[in-house]
Amino acid sequence: MVSFIHEISHEWQRRTTLREFRQGRVLIDEICDADFLLRAAAEHHGQASARECPICGKEMREVTWVYSERLGRRSGTARNEDEIARLVAEVGPITVHLVEVCAHCKWNYLLKEFTAVRQA
User: At the top level of its lineage, which domain of life is listed (predicted)?
Assistant: First the structure.
């Protein structure tokens, strides 16, 4: 079982970015830049988001990425919750990023980062 601690939310920055875009201070190409790997990971490893895309209004996906020096080549890969639990059991605490992705317009944003640890 895994617990998530030390959560950092990026919702405030997300709202600021969207406000700047709507006011014409940020170009669409600057915020709708999800590459093929991110979009593919969202499609195959992500889950449906409760929110619509703030840019095009279409369905979005949320995908989790794992990071740790102890993961070796597995660091920087998309993983589901079961895989995260296995990795934590194997190597200890890891950093997890939750990213929302729109496959249609390529909007993407880091929503949260947190540390996954074994539940006590």
Answer: Bacteria
The number of domains in the chain is: 1
Confidence of residue 120 (pLDDT cuts 50, 70, 90): confident
Domain ranges, residue 37:
2-118
Number of Cβ within 10 Å of residue 35's Cβ equals 10
- Model confidence pLDDT, tens digit, residues 86-99: 999 999 999 999 99
